[in-house]
Design a protein that fits this description.
The chain is of the alpha+beta class. 21% of the residues lie in helices and 23% in strands.
Amino acid sequence: NAYIRFASIESAKNSCAMNSSEVEGNNMRVDLALNSHKHDQNKAIFLGNLDFKTHEDDVRQAFQNCGTIESVRLVRDADTGIGKGFGYVNFASKDSVETALTLEGSIE
């Protein structure tokens, strides 16, 4: 993980255009670290029972055919960085959520 402090709010907001950009084969997650920023829960799915070694790119690949993915968040232990076995996928539309839910139990 990396955190960048911008000189202005405008610069920080402009950086969000790079969300989901690919860098060296990995998708970047670019988001504002503001308390006021909330993800639309109607456009998100919860993932449970994940292997602790699961990476964000693995999840992104598993759900890529469901629609545009805005972000993937896997919850990790703050000290070790090891996954806790759950996370979220935030989609651009509610239709993508419906498609993703049809995959329940079919992704390994």
